[in-house]
Amino acid sequence: MTQKVTVPTITAMKGGKEKITMLTAYDTPFARILDEAGVDMLLVGDSVGSVVAGYPNTLPVTIEEMIYHTRAVVRGVTRSLVVIDMPFMSYQVSSEDAKRNAGRMIKESGAEAVKLEGGVNMREAINAIAAIDIPVMGHIGLTPQSVHQMGGYKVQGKVEEQKRKIMADALAVEEAGAFALVMECIPTELAAEITKKLSIPTIGIGAGIHCDGQVLVIHDVLGLLGEFRPKFVKRYVDMRAVISQAATAYVDEVRTGKFPTEEQTFHL
Question: What is the CATH number of domain 7-237?
């Protein structure tokens, strides 16, 4: 069996020749496929709210929903490191809340690390969780749980004030004890500077080529969301068209009596 990816495996890949790979997963079949494909980390993102549940954003996602989907992912994995997103308001109120909820999510889901959004403002939460030996992945730049405060999903760090804030956030996340950092929708030059300055791996999503690794939402990679495609996404296949074609053929065959055939039929 291929060796299991662990938190030390990921931290050891910092600055290495081989980049870290990460994709989202929300169920067992996808998790099994991605695990077998050699993806290093599977993120059970709160993006499940938008891409699976049909919510307008990630804010309505609950701890229970995250645990449910993560359990399903864990059942399909033998190699990848599984990271669970802490949803909105599961860690922002207090350090005690953050520890309690992180512990519950790890215990009940089977995940091996948690991810939470925020930098300087979340230093205490990250530190508290890391202090009880739960690995924490940070997330700065465009943080979807702050969509209302940011005024939408916009590139962050284009002006000097934002650059300074994002750099301070990155340093705070590392200092607080996170083992890795996701950087979303920031200029590649800033991402390169942060990656060089930090001793922990950086994982980019819309942050350019200079990060230690990359993450994308699997539904974007597979083209399952139709024409919606952020600039940082590369669509590797149009699975929406494939599924639509199969469903259309099924409907036609059932309506015209072509399915089921003798091959799909049982007899006494």
Answer: 3.20.20.60
Concerning whether 184 is annotated as a catalytic residue, the answer is yes
Q: For residue 73, with 0-12 CB atoms within 10 Å meaning exposed, 13-18 middle and 19 or more buried, which class applies?
A: buried
* Choice among 184, 189, 193, 227 that is catalytic: 184
Q: Using one digit for the tens of pLDDT, what is the confidence trace for 110-160?
A: 999 999 999 999 999 999 999 999 999 999 999 999 999 888 888 999 999
Q: Which residues contact 141 (CB under 8 A, 6 or more apart)?
A: 156, 157, 166, 183, 184, 185, 186, 207
- Amino acid identity, residue 221? V
So where are the chain's domains? 7-237, 238-268
In degrees, rounded to 5, the angle at the alpha carbon of residue 113 between the alpha carbons of residues 109 and 116 is 100
Question: Would the pTM count as exceeding 0.85?
Answer: yes
Burial of 177 (0-12, 13-18, 19+ CB in 10 A): middle
Q: Are 203 and 182 in contact (CB under 8 A)?
A: yes
